[in-house]
Amino acid sequence: MCEYQNLLANAMQLSVSERIKLIDELASTVPDDLPPTLSAEWISEINRRSDEIDSGEVELHDWSMIREKLMNQYGTNDAD
Description:
- With 80 residues, the chain is mostly helical.
- It has a domain at 48-80.
- It is 60% helix and 0% strand.
- It starts with a helix and ends in a 7-residue tail after the last helix.
């Protein structure tokens, strides 16, 4: 088994709240100027959602509020 598969298998043994915290911490290490390659479907969806925001059709929420709600919902308030 490769190192990635070992790491993934070990991560899957974590509780849901620990996996969420791990995802959050890993995501924060990805440079903003290194976006993933997106499929045409994702680009279309992003454009659709962007148009909804620009037109005022949707209500936006701060990431910090959403993150806190998720951390509280899954049994951890240790978001830092």
